[in-house]
């Protein structure tokens, strides 16, 4: 994209790579359920992940097909559900429209916003601090779109012994996480066996989505909110935040991190 560039007092004409942002509609049985502003990549993953985190389906196998259709200035994800799921959705159908970064647009009550999330307490995943460092570094390294634009969020799935097995990007942090959750489901990985790593702050919606996916560890380079910490604690999730270089802060379930050999400072 052409731009006027100012650097150290000098003005020049140049080019800047910037990400796409388009309306993406989620349609079930021919009716639009939601519209999100998003990066138009990995749309099948997005459709599956959104359907899972919204509770429309419990498994990717309940989605029979996803068709991406151009619709004016945006894209329409036409999602075909199994009959039982389609009937359940029609009984609770609601409309919502969400700008970038809004993870709860269309929520109609406080109870919906404060939904009870699944417990991940039983997961026996244990990570080393080296795993945390490796995971955050790998996410940064594999964010190809962000490397070009410096304008998108990333979410990755890290498996101990295998490394970062999937990364998804989007202009919206919730969208990036939904895309990743879809990729995990379609890729056949068990979310309980690894950690989800994100580049954004940890708000409650990010914790809710990770718990629904079944991941017991959520790692972020930024800080959490108090509600995110409380929700992670209730779900039995390990919340690692402000993970930069070799430093991090652990807010819940520190037993999933091997902290042996690290000196305690009173």
UniProtKB/TrEMBL annotation:
It holds the Pfam family FdhD-NarQ. The keyword Cytoplasm applies. Signal peptide: none annotated. SUPFAM superfamilies: Cytidine deaminase-like. Keywords: Cytoplasm, Molybdenum cofactor biosynthesis, Transferase. Its main location: cytoplasm. It comes from the Bacteria. It is found in: Cytoplasm. Belongs to the FdhD family. Required for formate dehydrogenase (FDH) activity. Acts as a sulfur carrier protein that transfers sulfur from IscS to the molybdenum cofactor prior to its insertion into FDH. This is Sulfur carrier protein FdhD.
């Amino acid at each position: 994209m052409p731009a006027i560039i100012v650097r150290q007092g000098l003005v020049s004409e140049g080019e800047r790579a910037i990400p796409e942002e388009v309306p993406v509609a989620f349609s079930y049985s021919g009716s639009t359920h939601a519209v999100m502003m998003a990066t138009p990549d990995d749309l099948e993953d997005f459709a599956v992940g959104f359907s899972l985190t919204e509770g429309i389906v419990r498994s990717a196998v309940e989605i029979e097909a996803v068709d991406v259709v151009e619709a004016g200035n945006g894209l329409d994800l036409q999602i075909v559900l199994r009959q039982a799921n389609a009937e359940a959705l029609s009984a609770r159908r609601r409309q919502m429209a969400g700008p970038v970064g809004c993870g709860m647009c269309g929520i109609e009550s406080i109870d919906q916003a404060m939904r009870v999330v699944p417990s991940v307490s039983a997961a026996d995943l244990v990570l080393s601090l080296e795993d945390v460092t490796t995971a955050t570094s790998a996410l940064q390294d594999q964010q190809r779109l962000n490397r070009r634009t410096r304008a998108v969020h990333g979410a990755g799935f890290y498996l101990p012994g295998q490394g970062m097995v999937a990364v998804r990007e989007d202009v919206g942090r919730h969208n990036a996480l939904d895309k990743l959750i879809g990729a995990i489901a379609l890729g056949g990985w068990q979310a309980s066996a690894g950690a989800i790593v994100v580049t954004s702050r940890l708000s409650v919606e990010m914790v809710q989505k990770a718990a629904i996916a079944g991941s017991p560890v959520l790692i972020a380079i930024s800080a959490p909110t108090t509600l995110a910490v409380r929700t992670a604690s209730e779900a039995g999730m390990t919340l690692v935040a402000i993970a930069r270089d070799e430093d991090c802060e652990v807010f819940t379930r520190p037993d999933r991190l091997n902290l042996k050999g690290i000196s305690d400072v009173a």
